[in-house]
Amino acid sequence: MPASPSGHGTSRSRSWWGWGYADAHPDDAECIAMGALLPGTLARPLPIPRVADLSMPRPGVTPPPALTHLLTADPDVRAAHAMGKAYRDIIRALRGRPGRIPDLVARPTDDREVSDLLDWAGGQGVAVIPFGGGSSVVGGVEYRGDTHRAVLSLDLTSMDRVLEIDTAGRSARIQAGALGPVLEEQLRPHGVTLRHFPQSFEFSTLGGWLATRAGGHYATGRTHIDDFVQSLRVVTPAGSGASWRLPASGAGPSPDRMFLGSEGALGVITEAWMRLQERPRHRASASVAFTGFRPALEAVRAIAQSDLSPANCRLLDPGEALLSGASHDGSSVLILGFESATSRVDDRLASALELARAHGGRGGTPSADRDSPADAAVSAWRSVFLRMPYLRDGLARMGAVVDTFETAATWDRVPALIDAVRTEVGSAASKATGHPATVNCRLTHVYPDGAAPYFTVAVAGRPGDEVRIWDDIKAAASDVLHRYRATITHHHAVGRDHRPGYDLQRPDPFALALRAAKDALDPRRILNPGVLID
Ligand SMILES: Cc1cc2nc3c(=O)[nH]c(=O)nc-3n(C[C@H](O)[C@H](O)[C@H](O)COP(=O)(O)OP(=O)(O)OC[C@H]3O[C@@H](n4cnc5c(N)ncnc54)[C@H](O)[C@@H]3O)c2cc1C
User: Which chain positions carry the site (Important for enzyme activity) (predicted)?
Assistant: First the structure.
């Protein structure tokens, strides 16, 4: 059995403690070079942690013979399922203090087996943590309680098939444990795609996307996975069921809406009918530089409020632009991209560039209408974007405190919100560490009525104190978001880390209804305890 969830058809092994493939992590020399850019970091990287060094108690529960073929207590597998992939998780693993390690990991292959595992766990007082790719960045896949007899990580990645394709209706029935590439590989021969590409695409699953309401690469329009859902099948401790496949329905509150974003606390999503698209044949992209960030925000608002609907409309502030190599002269950079399966997109790009220039944007030579961008800033940004999680882990090895958080707010609040986050989070980070901190911002998704700013914080930590420092930084960030009535998360989900912010954000009657749903569907409180509702 591999050391971590599927390497999806490759022989490469996944890192149990860090992002992605173990062989893709920066080596010591690269870590040291990165650390030199952040004053106060360590002289040498922390060693790569070893599972053999973890203290791992024996499983606190013995499964019945009928289920043993689905379960493993292999230490490598247990360690790989102990946490998600936030900075908080990476540094705890590096320090040899991961969260509570699950007693057992189960890999069911169908609904019946999921249901049998839930029945057994309910009878034994075992907490069940649904686990897709384990890419949660909000403490969504770890157990932090002490009221359950044992913890079972329910890994869905053996349920990874595209079961049916409805070509006429352009939709497919897909098992929830399919990792992004596994799912797309099965759709490709049919000329269709789900075309949902979160940054974590390679190592996250359809079920995880649905359970967290993930945000994909579309910057406008269909930004969240919700927009592609036709129906869901869910197994709960109280029974299983599927919603009808419908193109749209006005029949009362949507059953799918109850499980989208339910983060494994109400049931296990086992499959979904998903709306597909033809593969795009026409693409065009360009970047535009701005001297000031405010005019750039205005340009983005104008584009978001037009009917141009760019697939990519990422605004990078000067720090982000520098980090990704998109600019070296202190400019903010707007990356624009258009795509279509049916018609050329050059005119739409030209119109967006016109709007950007009307707000002071410079440059913006459109690429040819093809896949690889001609624009150097667009290319630079794309390659750093995909490598970024590996670099973050390298910086963590150098003792840096470095992670991201994201939000969304209406346009009337966006500029002041971004300023307040930069100032207040930057000063909280410096205060907590005694080192200068950087807080960079980009807009990942934009809407006619608002935008989703995404922040990256980097500061040298104090050895051994990194988790507390990050928690202080996150608390300062949550305070600002709450004050500006900006959501605690636009797409990273709530998990355990965002519970306080989520509790403040949701209306009381809704909390009552959620608690009632939890009572009805999970009466023994075994599913992902501590997430969304107690
Ligand atoms: C480097 C990096 C980049 C990221 N980029 C993005 C991004 O671009 N957009 C974005 O939205 N998020 C992003 N994330 C966050 C994360 O990838 C998403 O939350 C993703 O949707 C999680 O999918 P997963 O399969 O890994 O789920 P997991 O991490 O395994 O689980 C996430 C949550 O869903 C629950 N769950 C998982 N599967 C099921 C199921 N079948 N039924 C019920 N509950 C289930 C879990 O219990 C947990 O609460 C990123 C994370 C990292 C580390």
Answer: 314
User: Cα of 51 to ligand 1 centre, how many Å?
Assistant: 23
Q: Which amino acid, residue 362?
A: R
Angle at 371 between CA 169 and CA 440, to 5 degrees: 100
ipTM: 1.00
The Cα–Cα gap between 189 and 172 comes to 13
Residue 364 near ligand 1, beta carbon < 6 Å: no
pLDDT at 369: 47
Q: How far, in Å, from the CA of 136 to the mean position of ligand 1?
A: 4
Distance 134 CA to ligand 1 centre (A): 6
The β-bridge partners of 179 are 205
The predicted pLDDT at position 372 comes to 52
Q: What is the CA radius of gyration of the chain?
A: 23
Choosing from 143, 454, 484, 502, which is the catalytic residue? 454
* Distance in angstroms (rounded) separating the CA atoms of residues 304 and 362: 19
For Cα atoms 453, 422, 463, give the angle at the middle one, nearest 5 degrees: 110
User: Taking the mean position of all CA atoms in its chain, how far away is CA 507?
Assistant: 25
pLDDT of residue 4: 37
Q: Using CA atoms, how far apart are residues 167 and 171, in angstroms rounded to an integer?
A: 7
Q: Choose among 494, 489, 430: nearest CA to 462.
A: 430
* pLDDT less than 70: residues of the chain: 1-10, 366-374
464 torsion bin: left (phi>0), alpha (psi -120 to 50), beta (else)? left
Q: Does ligand 1 have an atom closer than 6 angstroms to the CB of 212?
A: yes
Task: List for the chain the helix, strand, coil content (%; round to 5).
Answer: 35, 20, 45
For 175, the token pair is 């098992």
Say how far apart CA 135 and CA 199 lie, in whole Å: 10
Q: Is 531 in the pocket of ligand 1 (CB under 6 A)?
A: yes
Nearest CA to ligand 1 atom 45: 264
What is residue 487's predicted lDDT score, i.e. its pLDDT? 98
Whether 218 is catalytic is no
224 CB-contact burial (10 Å; exposed 0-12 / middle 13-18 / buried 19+): buried
CB-side neighbour CA atoms (13 Å) of 239 = 3
Domains with residue ranges and CATH for the chain: 22-155 (3.30.43.10), 162-278 (3.30.465.10), 282-483 (3.40.462.40)
What per-residue confidence (pLDDT) applies to 373? 54
Q: Which of 356, 330, 314 has the alpha carbon at shortest distance from 441?
A: 314
